[in-house]
Please model this.
Amino acid sequence: MAASLPFRPFEYMHWAKHVAPGAPFPMHVSGLPAPAPLPFAVDLSSRRVFEPPAAAREAFSERLLPYIGALGSALLPVSGASEGVFVALAALVERGSAVLVEQPAYRAMERVVQFLGGVPVRVPRVEDDGWRLDPAHVTAALRESGAGVLAITDPHNPTGASISLPERAALIAAVERAGAFLVVDEIFAPFRGAGAAPAWAAQSKRVLSIGSLTKGWGLSALRCGWVAGAPDLVHRGAAVFDLLGVNAPPATLYLAASALGHAAELDARACAAAAALRAALAATDWGAAALSPPDTGITAFLQLPAGLSSGAVATSLREQDGVQVVPGHFFGSDRHLRIGGVAEGCDLTEGCRRIAARLNAPVR
Ligand SMILES: Cc1ncc(COP(=O)(O)O)c(C=O)c1O
Model:
């Protein structure tokens, strides 16, 4: 990676795009592959794909807003949750101001805050408490840092922890009391299943919810994401988007609207994948490693036995055991590995067994 970049790059994304393909046990993935056959179709030769985008946006919103339980919200379609994170934070973060982010975390939010000239302040998720984000910690951190924004991911990457509805209410109340804003990346929500919880933005005018069809539905290739929330906040995001993308592509929006017509089926597939991973994790004797089982999604954050470092272990697992995992340092902890995966094309139980055996092997 170029050393001379005028900003701090998102190291994990660079790594993820360059993982050597072909691991017999691809346990680094956090999303499903596209369903085969696709349960939906759109005639892309139709003229309407080339017409002004308002009708495509309407077709998409009509299906998306009820699906995410945010009927009264405004919606901005963007290119994946990645662009959603950038748009939402650029709409809210002021130069020089503190922004609360999580530790551990998928670092896109922290890097975008830095890119925007904000100052990330990390709030810990508590491993011994199922990777809980404690509203009391958030309240204290908001007070001490003077942060104007809290930026989190729920369900969480890398741990798979999902914030309960009462804790969600407590976090929203803390943000509202502080006069701050909340940005929630909800890309893993489909793994909870249809209707399990509305988008966070449905519950407060100070929240922007980000979503995408990438992970649970396996539709990364569509680059279909969104930012939802109160109209005044979403309009701020739209002003950022004016600098980036002109319009979300109608072809993507029509394909996404068509996929949303099969939401129940696609959510069920995501839930089945999450259940398969939980079963494989539960069937494994982790020995000196420690695992807080994920509530949702297809990733978990495994604590390494003392003395091991995540990069070295990940290299041995790939080279000697054929198992690809993600070194935890990308998420802010060298003492963990992110493991996970999809049972389609990977024996997760055998993959877990190999990971546990490697971690518990005597050091030579
Ligand atoms: C938490 C989180 N947000 C966003 C993304 C990127 O999603 P998209 O493909 O929708 O841009 C990822 C991908 O790994 C992710 O884990």
Q: What stands out?
A: Residues 34 and 218 are 4 Å apart (CA to CA). The chain has a mean pLDDT of 96.
